[in-house]
Design brief:
Length: about 500
């Protein structure tokens, strides 16, 4: 998510949950996941690091949907070698009527390490009345499943018997989307149609807690994505309409035969369609880059394409290789911005107001959203309870980008992005701790950046950068908690970090 505006999750926060969330955070601070049992935890030299390490079990939040039949136990946070969940989506799309008819097959593989008695699918489109219509729900043998479990933005499916670790189950959904007329990540406006979080999906299942399903707020992200494989076929109802389709993967086929996409080991699949946009491409490297813009913003789009490519190379060198064959950015006709796997939206205002050079939000946010391909995409985390794990690191990655690509503008970056806001607040803030966006950003993004800079200064560049690379690769295509972050940090320094961590992080 970009730092300057509100994003995903437009529903208001339920006040009755607030005090409970504060209590849970006080008890579990930095504990998003339990520690792996197949890899002994390191013993940090700092006593505060030890304090922030997780206990054997995680107290359930009232918001995640807890599977009470599961036996809480530790499970690996890095992805095991078992097969991933697979989504097969066949879409008939009527652009003029803003309508989709979808056949979705979901094969879920239980890699949680515990038996699971029910599936819980998140259905974000059903937050808006009249948008989502579930026509049928069956097992793979076509046995009907009661649809009574559909309540609001979630669908609960009891399993005939608990699903053992390593086993899989398949269900089939047929549904329709009547897209709302609104500018945003899901809906249509005068110039484009966007489909973010458009299909029912299974969130991350955390052993000892359950399915991580959260209530949205007016700020930050609330969705928790597991890693999955996607096979998507899109057939436009009228192949004569000239459409520009941008997606998380490259398309095979055309409007006559249908567009076919495959995306492996990703958090989600996202796409955007327009009759009025132009796709800029860079195919000079191993990763194909696409920036789709409105024609009047082509010059700014070329700079965004350049910045995205530069950032991709820098982050690949620093954190490890980017995993996909392409990366796409779409200029959004809304006051917003959002990261997805292999795909990002960026607010049109940054294109419209770009005047040239690297001293611009267009450049900083192109670097920021590219960094999310590592901090969010490759290394997954609980975006509701520990948003700093992706937002702090994505924002700090911006300065690493400027240091290497535009070193003369590093001081500008610090003053423009951080210092002028005089940020305050605890870094390990949840999305439920603030009612306004700026205090939340100041704490999670900007104080997080100040912590990372102070940590780097105390450790030294060599050890600090080695820590980031190790952290990214140790949990590549995995899931982390704040405790994992600090445990890897403990492997890279013998210094006592109590005072530094205590300055920026609220502890239990």
């Amino acid at each position: 998510m970009k730092e300057t505006t509100k994003t995903r999750g437009k529903g208001g926060f339920k006040t009755c949950f607030k005090n409970v969330f504060v209590l849970v955070l006080w008890l579990t601070c930095l504990v998003g996941c339990v520690m792996p049992v197949d890899k002994p935890a390191t013993t940090p030299t700092s006593s505060l690091l030890t304090l922030l390490a997780p206990s054997a079990t995680v107290l359930p939040s009232p918001t995640p949907l807890v599977d009470l039949t599961a036996t809480p136990q530790a499970s690996p946070t890095a992805e095991p070698t078992a097969r991933r969940t697979t989504y097969t989506l066949k879409v008939q799309f009527d652009y003029a009527k803003h309508h989709l008819a979808v056949n979705e097959t979901v094969t879920y593989f239980n890699r949680s390490g515990v038996p699971i008695s029910k599936l819980v699918l998140v259905i974000e489109p059903n937050r808006t009345p009249g948008v989502f219509q579930l026509d049928s729900l069956t097992w793979v043998d076509r046995t009907a499943i009661p649809r009574s479990g559909l309540k609001g933005a979630s669908l609960t499916v009891p399993l005939p018997q608990p699903l053992a670790p390593g086993n899989s189950v398949t269900l089939i959904l047929n549904f329709q989307l009547n897209l709302p007329q609104r500018n945003g990540i899901l809906g249509y406006g005068a110039r484009q149609t966007n489909l973010g979080d458009w299909y029912p999906f299974l969130p991350y299942y955390q052993s000892g807690t359950g399915w991580l399903v959260y209530t949205p707020t007016g700020l930050g992200e609330h969705l928790c994505y597991d890693l999955a494989d996607f096979v998507v076929d899109i057939l436009p109802s009228d192949p004569k309409i000239n459409l520009v389709i941008s997606a998380s993967a490259q398309a095979e086929g055309d409007s006559q035969t249908g567009y076919h996409y495959q995306l492996r080991a990703a958090r989600n699949f996202t796409w955007s369609i327009s009759q009025q946009m132009e796709a800029l491409t860079d195919t000079s490297g191993k990763v194909k880059l696409f920036v789709t813009v409105f024609p009047e913003d082509k010059t700014a789009g070329e700079m965004a394409l350049k910045s995205m490519g530069e950032a991709l190379q820098i982050y690949s060198d620093l954190f490890g290789p980017y995993p996909h064959a392409s990366l796409t950015m779409v200029e959004g006709d809304f006051f917003d911005g959002m990261e997805y796997d292999g795909f990002t939206f960026l607010d049109q205002n940054y294109f419209i107001h770009y005047t040239g050079g690297p001293e611009a939000y267009l450049v900083t946010l192109s670097a920021h959203e590219t960094a999310h391909q590592w901090w969010y995409g490759l290394v997954g985390n609980d975006q509701a309870m520990e948003p700093w794990l992706d937002e702090t690191l994505a924002t700090y990655s911006e300065v690493l980008f400027y240091e290497r690509q535009y070193p003369n503008d590093v001081n500008w970056w610090w003053n423009f992005r951080v210092n002028r806001f005089n940020p305050t607040g605890w870094v390990n803030t949840t999305i439920y701790d603030y009612d306004a966006f700026r205090p939340y950003v100041n704490a999670v993004y900007l104080r997080g950046v100040l912590f990372m800079q102070a940590l780097r200064k105390q450790m030294g560049d060599q050890e600090f950068l080695a820590f980031l690379k190790d952290y990214a690769n140790r949990y590549r295509q995995g899931w982390v908690s704040g405790a994992d972050f600090f445990n890897v940090l403990g492997d890279h320094t013998q210094q006592n970090l109590d005072a530094l961590i205590g300055e920026y992080f609220k502890k239990p």
